[in-house]
Amino acid sequence: MTDKKLVPADQLGPFVADLFIAGGFSANAGRRIADALIEADLSGRGSHGVLQAENYLARLVAGAMSTAEKPTIVSQSRGAIVLDAGSMEGHLAADEAIALGIEAAREQGIVAVAVRNSQHTGVTGRYVRTAAEQGCVAIAMGNAKPVMPAPGGAQRLVGTNPLAVGIPATEGPIVLDMATTAGTVGRIRQARAQGQQLPDGWATDAEGNPTTDPAEAMAGMLLPMGGAKGFALSFVIDLLVGLLSSGAWGDKLGQLDDDNSKPQVTSFLFIVLNVSHFRPLPEFLAEADEAVARVRNARRAPGTDRLYTPGERSAETLAKSGGMVNLAPAVAASLAKRARDLGVAIPAFLEG
């Protein structure tokens, strides 16, 4: 295993922001992107954290990522909004999309926002959490270039295609956030950067043989979560987000580890329901809290200290992080090299 170093988030974040600003983003946009990546790291989602910065920056420098900060509204009717992100950075595009969805749902009760031509949006759960914190239930899904075969197949057909659901609760939102593969491309890249092997059942090599080697997995295929059910869920997500947005799906998509001179053109869909249009929010919260308590107070198997509802582990990891990010040497080296290329001062914690 490759040793990692602990880096203060309040030092790493501004440095990462400076890289994006040097690449052409405004100061505000650079900070927002960096904050999203740092939050992922602090929440235990390092596969979607600063590890991804180099891929984003490579596309940015190559002209394959727009520095725009708002997507174009293609159409907007009662309950349906279609946006074209125009190769925007994904966090910025998704932030705007969920904000539009929350605003429209306040008046209409329910709205769907379909987005095309976006780049990697990071942790999908962060967007449904934003909605849940404002009294909305939210469902989010997105697609990525195929890495998963159909059961019994030997060809990549669908991506890791995440699904997230956010539900308001008094102590903090209930947040389901899952890929439809057993593992994710980001986690495989993270394992490769950290010199780790993969769990059994995550991937195959290019010939379809099971593998725990990250390099072989990147050249091979990722296996579905839950067998045929995971493939089926990924397939319908791909169609929903791609077809409703008039965006890319299947082989038309681009991925982080492909040619960084080209945009990713991914698609995603947010469905936002304002709880107060269905029932008084306090009543909803009371029952959501009851459901959370039911899980926490349930009988535990021997050796189990606590039972968790969806999203609680990430929230707990964030709270216990102490504001420190685990940075793999390979990631630190890539950031330092990019800083030299962009003329950004390299902080001491990367040089040490």
From TrEMBL:
InterPro entries: Mal/L-sulf/L-lact_DH-like_ah (IPR043144), Mal/L-sulf/L-lact_DH-like_NADP (IPR043143), Mal/L-sulfo/L-lacto_DH-like_sf (IPR036111), Malate/L-lactate_DH-like (IPR003767). It comes from the Bacteria. Keywords: Oxidoreductase. Transmembrane segments: none annotated. The keyword Oxidoreductase applies. SUPFAM superfamilies: L-sulfolactate dehydrogenase-like (SSF89733). One of its GO terms (molecular function) is oxidoreductase activity. The keyword Oxidoreductase applies. PANTHER family: MALATE DEHYDROGENASE (PTHR11091:SF0), OXIDOREDUCTASE-RELATED (PTHR11091). Belongs to the LDH2/MDH2 oxidoreductase family. This is Lactate dehydrogenase. It comes from Nitratireductor aestuarii.
